[in-house]
Amino acid sequence: MSRAPLALALLLAALPAGASEVYIGLEGAAGKAWTLGLDSFTSQDPKSPADAADARALRDVLRSDLLFSRSFVLADQPPAADSPDVPAAWRAKGASFLIRAVAGRNGDMLAFQLTLTDLGSGQPLLSRYYRQKAEFLRVLAHTAADDVVRQLTGRRGVARSRLAFVNDQSGAKEIYVADYDGAELKKVTSNRSLNLLPRWRPDGRALAFTSYKENNPDLYLYDFEKGKLSTLSERQGLNIAGGFSPDGTQLALTLSRGKEPNIFLLSLKDLSAKQLTNHFGVDSSATFSPDGLQVAFVSDRAGNPQVHVMELATGKIKRLTGLNWCDSPSWSPTGEWIAFAGRANRKDNMDIFLVDVTGTRVVQLTHGEGQNEAPSWAPDGRFLAFSSTRRGGKPQVYLMDADGSAPRQWLDLPGGSYSPHWSP
Questions:
Q1: Which CATH class is domain 6-19+162-422?
Q2: Max Cα separation, the chain?
Q3: Is the Cβ–Cβ distance between 262 and 279 less than 8 Å?
Q4: Binning pLDDT at 50, 70 and 90, where does residue 259 land?
Q5: What is the CATH number that goes with domain 35-153?
Q6: Quick one: residue 247, left, alpha or beta (phi over 0 = left, psi -120 to 50 = alpha)?
Q7: pTM as predicted
Q8: How far is CA 347 from the centre of its chain?
Q9: Would you give the distance in Å from CA 3 to the centre of its chain?
Q10: Which of 13, 55, 88, 392 is most buried by a 10 A CB count?
Q11: Which segments of 212-320 are extended strands (E)?
């Protein structure tokens, strides 16, 4: 009998009868990361304690976002206010650019003016005005941080991204979401059932996941803006999301319909399902390429589960891996790599690997530090989230750089945390 990949094992069984600092990215002429000066943020009303508190809070969040980006070094101790030449004082600290901001409230609204200046030319590179309800202060800071990262590196930032994951602290497996930095933790499901494998829609406003709340592994979509849960697929047997197409019109999923699991494409318009694979055994965990022209998936058609790629236009399938076991592929946003969980030998722990899209190069990122599973890419392609039992044997969500360096625990929650998925 065919054996299922690890991501499906629980579903099938339940069916009824310190990190080191690494700076990469923006570089100066000598090959060294630019230094970015971060001035104190000032109050729109110097006499307002609320404005002063908002300015400090905005700076703290933005500072953390910029440090996480690993795109530049921060100089965040401002020179003396009475310095005769403040730009020169910042340049003496090694800074090539300077961020300044002013914050103030008007009723329940928070205004935030940020300026990014090139200290060499004295010219502003970015001057932007942000305004939002004061309760969304963190969103303002995240947005500004992403704008700075894009302005200086040409890449999108991750500060406004979120992670969805599964946690069992309540005795059931429920879906949670939190900001990329672990703040604003929120519980999405509370049905005291088995809720698994969350997958973000490309716009980041909805989340697909599988739930047993009606005693069958059905597929649901939760819309955060509407606060509404809808059913995507309640076909007999498995209904498991793989990943959305880049345009958000289709969802690759695994359906079994009481038979062997295969890959289908679900239309989000009419919920019709088009079958992509038709194989005796298990095909699962589909993930779209960034251009939407291919899907990677796991299949045990050659014996143990391996990562395969299908061209959607032709149906042509190519096997990429040849390890003892592979599971949970995740295609990088930049398109060159597919991350997956696997083991080279039967007795090894599960680790996180990368395989290039030609299948000619496999890179191991973790090395037996507990069981490491379910990799998911940050939207900029520079970081990975994954679950690991490396500390105390209880699975928790970890983040690491895309080269495997600087692994660090994301949140420390009661119970176990599984299946992280990083929003676009």
A1: mainly beta
A2: 80
A3: yes
A4: confident
A5: 3.40.50.10070
A6: alpha
A7: 0.90
A8: 30
A9: 29
A10: 55
A11: 218-223, 228-233, 239-244, 250-255, 262-267, 273-275, 283-288, 294-299, 306-311, 317-319
